[in-house]
Amino acid sequence: MSLQSICVTPHEFVLEGVGARARTGVLLVHGMTGTPNEMRLLAKGLHKEGFTVYAVQLAGHCGSVADLVAARWPDWVASVEAGAERLARHVDRVVVGGLSMGAVLSLALAQRQPERIAGVCALSTLFRYDGWSIPGYTRLAFLLPLFRLLGIGRDAVFMEQPPYGIKDEALRKRIVAQMHSDDSAAAGLPGNPWWTIIEMRRLSAHVLRRLGEVRAPCLVVHATEDDVSTPSNARDIVDGVTAAPVELVLLEDSYHMITIDRERRTVIARTADFVARIASGGLAPVGGAAGG
Questions:
Q1: Three-state secondary-structure class, residue 120
Q2: Taking the complete model, does pTM exceed 0.70, yes or no?
């Protein structure tokens, strides 16, 4: 089977590694309302180091608001599980890494497939919308399940606010222009549907309760000035994952979108170093090395 055949949508992509490191696969998971494209810079950096990289698409994404609202959090988990299974057929070990909600899904995968996942990279983890740019009224998000029960707000969207997770102003202008273009497959949707936020909150609660089940080493990278999710989200992982080593890296010159913001090279370098140590056997899941 061709490695390219593991992509099941036009928006997913795979970069085949070279040499011995090609047998280590990295599954990259984008965030809520995002697309695989937001992981491309990180993917290229990991591929440059020889690793095989597969950026998966989450259910309901890369389409319309209606597509996204129709998806539930177990559908997102199923997308990641299926992606890991496809990648594992071609490599000896799988490391999973995600941005924002993708980091939460990466932890969920490690909980559900401890025998397969050799490491987790949690970037700008989003358990809670508690960053400094989030409007105060979002504290009423606990009412959203009631709204859905009453059939209220199916088409309602919480629009993202400046600075849109990006500290670099020139980059921010380019990304915002893409967000408001007609190509949602390139930059994702510009807002978060209310009903999708409900699913994100349920996913987060599910994963937080089970952090103790994570057996794979974790790299946790977070910006101290994250405008969307405070570093307390990262510290939840540090405190909750007790059965495996956790490395915490705090960035001082970025906002939420650390894979493309000012310190993206640091993020790529630290992630590549983490994956390299897993590939060499320097880090292994509790209970033995995970294989494909």
A1: strand
A2: yes
How far apart CA 164 and CA 139 sit, in angstroms, is 19
The span from the CA of 282 to the CA of 284, in Å, is 7
Q: What is the pLDDT confidence band of residue 291, given thresholds at 50, 70 and 90?
A: low
Q: In sequence order, what are the residues at sequence separation of 6 or more whose Cβ sits closer than 8 angstroms to the Cβ of residue 78? A: 59
Least reliable range by pLDDT among 1-10, 97-106, 266-275 = 1-10
| Predicted local distance difference test score (pLDDT) of residue 171 | 92
- Tell me what the mean pLDDT of segment 255-268 comes to: 97
Strands (E) located in 66-114: 93-99
Query: How far apart are the C-alpha atoms of 115 and 291, rounded to whole Å?
Result: 7
Pairing of strands 157-159, 117-123: unpaired
For residues 35 and 246, what is the distance between their CA atoms, to the nearest angstrom? 27
Lowest mean pLDDT of 25-29, 138-142, 169-173, name the range.
138-142
Q: CB–CB of 118/288 below 8 Å?
A: no
Please tell me the distance from the alpha carbon of residue 168 to that of residue 257, in angstroms, as a whole number: 10
Q: Which CATH architecture has domain 3-279?
A: 3-Layer(aba) Sandwich (3.40)
User: CA angle, 42 as apex, 126 and 98 as ends, to 5°?
Assistant: 25
d(CA 215, CA 245): 9
The one-letter code for the residue type at 279 is: A
The alpha carbon torsion through 246, 275, 220, 8 (nearest 10 deg) reads -130
**Rg of the Cα trace of the chain?**
18
pLDDT tens across 68-94, in order?
999 999 999 999 999 999 999 999 999
Residues in Cβ contact with 142 at an 8 Å cutoff, skipping those fewer than 6 apart: none
Who's near 230: CB < 8 A, 6+ residues apart? 128, 130, 131, 132
Report the distance separating Cα 160 and Cα 177, nearest Å: 13
